[in-house]
Amino acid sequence: MRLRSRVPIALLAALAAVGVLASCSRASETPAAGSSGSGGTTSPAAELRLGYFPNITHAPALIGVDKGFIAGELGATKLTTQTFNAGPEEVNALLGGSLDAGFIGSSPAINAFAKSNGQAIRLVAGSTSGGAQLVVSTDITSPDQLKGKTIATPQLGNTQDVALKKWLKENNLEIGQGPDKVTVQNLDNPRTLDLFKTGQVAGGWLPEPWSSRLVDAGASVLVDERTLWPNGQFPTTVLIVRTEFLQQHPETVEALLRGAQKAIDYIASDPAGAKTASNESIKTLTGSALAPTVVDRAFTELAFGLDPLAATFPQLAKDSVTAGAQAQETNLQGFLDVTAVNKVLQAAGKPPVDAAGLDKPTG
């Protein structure tokens, strides 16, 4: 009897030990959200696949790549870049695993987090604030005069699309077709400029340099988005990273952020050089340089820094629902991981950024 009673007990003890070991193994394989690189062995990545836009709002990326700031910080890690015209396309690349990190608008960043149920990406830093405006033909001087007109945004659900639709609803303007409604048309930015010149669209809610390009073509500013936010600050471009990449290669993410900070410091120390570098990069990527007047105006509309302005994101999540881009407000707990950016800022003698509590996962 004693033998039969001891065998199950021994077996249970062995199984329990195996369970503990398996649990420890799983914990080491999957670091907790909001804690980059915790709980496992990490190493620099062999390659970093980085996305960004050929827009002035992405100047830290343009300059960071063009001047070699990012590649220099990455060292032996190969830098591979890809450019996009709007955020939703870049989100698909990130969620599909063909990108590791991307400079992107705030609304698509939220959308990527929501689409992956809070799993696939983390917001790790800011890049650019400001630089978005509703620019229209000069005969339009009030919101009501937009009735019966067509206004462009870069892409359905992108940052400017959400901002325009929220603003229209706040001004009791119905979106749709007809003399009492405002038609919102999603167009590539160069197409918007062409159609504005021929009078086929009345304007657009656009990022730089495209708002400045329409102004250069005769448009006037009806709404500067900075006037809609406290202290005139809202995140136009942020940096997001695939969660798995961040967990496995936090050193590479830190190197990317050091390169971005070098680009931001360069903008501050040599504005003329920064404008030239940005414009040359845009010419290389698109085949056409911007007029100097457009570049000059665009840079006056923007501010650059690694602070993601985390406290604005709950409002941005609400705006996505108001604009119809999301069916329900995204729970942003665990959205941010500021570990890497605060290491970089501390090393540079700069103050840390505030995650506004969004670095803490639910549960």
UniProtKB/TrEMBL annotation:
The cross-references to CDD domains, in alphabetical order and at most eight, read: PBP2_NrtA_CpmA_like (cd13553)
Using the record, list the residue span of the signal peptide; answer none if the entry has no such feature: 1-22
Q: Which Pfam families match?
A: NMT1_2
Key word Transmembrane helix present = no
Q: Which domain of life is it from?
A: Bacteria
Question: Keywords assigned by UniProt?
Answer: Cell inner membrane, Cell membrane, Membrane, Signal, Transport
The listed locations are: Cell inner membrane; Periplasm
Molecular function terms in GO for this entry? Answer: ATPase-coupled transmembrane transporter activity
Q: Which InterPro entries match?
A: ABC_SsuA_sub-bd (IPR010067), NrtA/CpmA_ABC-bd_dom (IPR044527)
GO cellular component terms, A-Z: periplasmic space; plasma membrane
Which PANTHER family would you find in this protein's record?
A: ALIPHATIC SULFONATES-BINDING PROTEIN-RELATED, TAURINE-BINDING PERIPLASMIC PROTEIN
Q: Which family does it belong to?
A: Belongs to the bacterial solute-binding protein SsuA/TauA family.
Protein name according to UniProt: Sulfonate ABC transporter substrate-binding protein
Its gene is: ssuA
